[in-house]
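Allow me, if you will, to draw on your knowledge of protein folds for a short while. I have a record of one protein: its chain in single-letter code and its fold written as discrete structure tokens. Kindly check, if you would, that the fold set down in the tokens agrees with what the sequence suggests. Thank you for your consideration; the sequence and its tokens are set out here:
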Amino acid sequence: MFPLRDNVPSRRYPLVTLALIVTNVAVFLHENSLGQEGLAFLFQQYGVVPVNFTGDWTALTASDALPLLTSVFLHGGWLHLISNLWYLWIFGDNVEDRMGHGRFLAFYLLGGAAASVVHVCLNPVSTVPSVGASGAIAAVLGAYLLLFPRARIITLVPIFLYLQFLELPASLVLGFWFITQLFSGVGSLAVQAVQSQGGVAYWAHIGGFVFGMLALPVFRERRRAHWWHDRRRPWPF
């Protein structure tokens, strides 16, 4: 399933979502200006290297924890970048709308950090830097699922040899996404040797998604929706 757009309009301009997209693109363009050695150094310094966090926790400083935030702005390639930002564009504006700009930014960054912590816990001896906004965006997906479970998502679905455009409920699209991540994450535990050499950080996605669901009550903006919004949109909170 590949989501194309949803049917939930935003009531305010998604400033933070757009700023995050622009920032990620700008950082990626900077990455492309570096050589192989410069890029490897950047990932080692600002990506999350699990083994760096699994030694003496009491010796960690604020600067040591900085990669938990900076890693969400680094990407390993164009496909990695575009796929992440596509999901952020579709789902981020609505979550930002329900949280407000400042709360959404804090939620996004903490979601990325929480996802990295889960990745570190499941890969404690890995020396491979983990980079990407996937964990933070997974947190956005988790929050979206609770906020708009009955929203409709125009989705591109491969059916045998054909591609079909289907309008599916958000609960189905995002639930299917989470289940695929969970099965892939469980499968990855059996091939730790392969995973230590790189690959998709499935447990970061799972951790981010669960964080998004659990943290939503803290970050959502408490306000009464007007009656005309209630008629047009599902508001479970």
